[in-house]
Amino acid sequence: MPRIAGVDIPENKRTEIALRYIYGIGPANVQTVLKIANVDGNKRAKELTDQEVARLVKALETTPVEGVLRKIINDNVQRLKQVRAYRGLRHIARLPAHGQRTRVNARTRRGKRMTVGSMTKEMAQKLETAKKV
User: Fold this and answer.
1) Residues ≥6 apart with Cβ < 8 Å to 42
2) Cα(39)–Cα(105) distance, integer angstroms
3) Which of 23, 54, 88, 109 supports an S-S bond with 80, CB 3.0-4.6 Å?
4) In this structure, what DSSP letter does residue 5 have?
């Protein structure tokens, strides 16, 4: 299994697909990386020679990937929070930052539903049983 940028890329996939397992490499910039490294994208990852892997590693040094990219993104979010920008406030409140609707959707960002203003069914049932006893 070739190891590129600290990631073991799958060896049975084509190189242009296998490189997408690296954080920060997607469909658009995988083509530029392959062109810079002069590597055939249709070749399987296990068929890559050591020279081709070295050229791929060298081509990936030009773009931020993995830990460096995660740090850049985290720093950008922290900066937005510090300057109290609208997007930063949305990050602080754990709400969608790109204008999505929040009244009925956004469950992945907001988390599990919480009852506000009245009791949940379970609490009401417990209260009733406590009154009867």
Assistant:
1) 14, 15, 16
2) 44
3) 88
4) T
Q: Does residue 56 form part of some domain?
A: yes
Using the 8-state DSSP alphabet, how is residue 63 labeled? S
Per DSSP, which regions of the chain are E strands? Answer: 3-4, 7-8
* Domain annotation covers residue 84: no
Question: Which tokens hold the place of 35?
Answer: 């062109």
In 3D, which of 13, 14, 62, 7 has the Cα closest to residue 36?
62
CATH no. for residue 14? Answer: 1.10.8.50
Distance CA 130, CA 133 (A): 5
Give yes or no for residue 51 having a pLDDT over 80: yes
pTM for the model stands at: 0.72
Give the domain range for residue 18. Answer: 3-62
Radius of gyration from C-alpha coordinates of the chain: 24
Kindly report, residue by residue over 57-82, the tens digit of the pLDDT: 999 998 899 999 999 999 999 999 99
Q: CB-based burial of residue 46 (10 Å sphere; 0-12 exposed, 13-18 middle, 19+ buried)?
A: middle
**pLDDT reported for residue 5:** 86
Determine the Cα–Cα distance for residues 29 and 130; give it in Å rounded to an integer.
Answer: 63
In a domain, 26, yes or no: yes
